[in-house]
Amino acid sequence: MILKPLSELNNGEKGKIVKIKLGGRIRQRLTDMGMVTGSEIIMERVAPLGDPIEIKLKGYNLSLRKEVASRIDIEVI
After folding, report:
1. Spatial separation of the C-alpha atoms in residues 7 and 52, rounded to whole Å
2. Which CATH architecture has domain 2-76?
3. What's the pLDDT tens digit per position in 2-22?
4. 3-class SS at 32?
């Protein structure tokens, strides 16, 4: 099992969310959008300057700041 932060996935890489190390309103907002433990994600692309990143989650694309993505642990599959 390979764990790494969401911010370090390569384009096209898939994974499952293992842990979200955020709290408060940001965590609630992500949870409302379906980002929960066990959800599968695909890294779509990274902006030219590295921030933000775009992932595919439950059939839709979501952009996240790299700072937020670095606090979400992913099991690469």
Report:
1. 9
2. Roll (2.30)
3. 999 999 999 999 999 999 999
4. helix
